[in-house]
Amino acid sequence: MDFTPEIKEKLNQLQEKYTAMGQDMASYLDGLLYADFLTYWDYIHLDTLLSLQSPKTPFPDEEIFIMYHQITELYFKLSLHECRQIAEHENLNVDFITARVKRINAYFNALTTSFEVMVDGMEKEQFLKFRMSLLPASGFQSGQYRMIEICATDFIRLVDKSKREELSTAPIEQQFEHIYWKFGATELASGKQTLTLKQFIKKYADQFLQLAKDRVQTNFAALYHQLQANGSDVSALAEELRKLDLYVNVEWPLAHYKSAVRYLEKDPVDVAATGGTNWQKYLPPRFQKRIFYPFLWTDEQMDEWGKGWVLSVLKTLKNRD
């Protein structure tokens, strides 16, 4: 076989690479010679991935429930991968952050459009039975989702709306005591934290607090203001941030709301969620008014935040049933 100039050049580059590391290139070539060809299933650990479903009951639809939540967490991991690239980039520019936020929006678009699997993809009777074996676990306990929120905005935007003004200059630790999702897993009658919330805080509180401190200057809202102050054209970034705001704070919660209404709404008393969360007040965006980027919306848009979606969801599901 004749070596082309291109192959000889690549061999020379490899020799330089290994010499710089004090390594023998010939040894690495031996390793390449003896190694098996890579297969798709080994590369993505397919057999392991397909073995990670362990239902707690004999109801077939429980596997659907498990797999969809696993898919969700993988999309969250993809989103956090983009968040880290943005926060850790040494010479961040508006094109880089815009492209990465656009990727996150693509992930959330896939999530929100696929959530019909959870709304219509299981038999209601099966779900209401196997869900009782899951207590007190809840999708509320997704730590990755909370991390995405922390990366996306100034931490004060995650504080319950009744406390935002009062705690606007308070330390992050104090703001964390009033983060919005804690009120979604607090018993209405007693005011006590549910076991679901206690478990969640015990596992993730330290990670959340450290991430919040690390992202004070590198969350998306802070970076937007920095780029704008530097004279960058942030119009495309603003558009992607508005999309992200709607995906995370309207579309995704309402996808869950549709599912909750489908499976848990029951006259005269609604069925409680597995984690004891107050889903009727916690999920609808019009109650939470959680908005990452208020500086990108008009007062009228914020006043109407999520209202139309909630009404249309309720009407659709009522008509179906």
Structure description:
By secondary structure, the protein is mainly α. It has helices spanning 5-20, 25-34, 40-43, 46-49, 61-88, 94-114, 116-120, 124-130, 143-152, 172-176, 195-214, 220-229, 235-264, 279-282, 285-288, 299-303, 307-320. The protein contains 17 helices and no strands. The protein is globular, with a radius of gyration of 24 Å.
Main attributes?
globular; 321 residues; 0% strand; Trp_2_3_dOase; Tryptophan 2,3-dioxygenase family protein; Trp/Indoleamine_2_3_dOase-like; 17 helices; mainly alpha
Short description:
With 321 residues, the protein is mainly alpha-helical.
Give start-end ranges of low-pLDDT stretches.
Answer: none
Helical amount? 55-70%
| N- to C-terminal distance | 72 Å
Written as H for each helix and E for each strand, in order along the chain, the element string is: HHHHHHHHHHHHHHHHH
Main sheet record: none
Mean pLDDT: 88
Instruction: Please state the structural category.
Output: mainly alpha
Can you tell me the overall shape?
globular
Computed CA radius of gyration, to the nearest angstrom = 24 Å
How many DSSP-defined strands? Answer: 0
Beta-strand content: under 5%
Number of helices: 17
Pfam families: Trp_dioxygenase
Protein name: Tryptophan 2,3-dioxygenase family protein
Organism: Pedobacter punctiformis
InterPro entries: Trp/Indoleamine_2_3_dOase-like (IPR037217), Trp_2_3_dOase (IPR004981)
How are the elements arranged and paired?
Elements: H1 5-20, H2 25-34, H3 40-43, H4 46-49, H5 61-88, H6 94-114, H7 116-120, H8 124-130, H9 143-152, H10 172-176, H11 195-214, H12 220-229, H13 235-264, H14 279-282, H15 285-288, H16 299-303, H17 307-320
Helix pairs in contact: 5-6, 5-9, 6-13, 9-11, 13-17
InterPro entries: Trp/Indoleamine_2_3_dOase-like, Trp_2_3_dOase
Protein name: Tryptophan 2,3-dioxygenase family protein
Organism: Pedobacter punctiformis
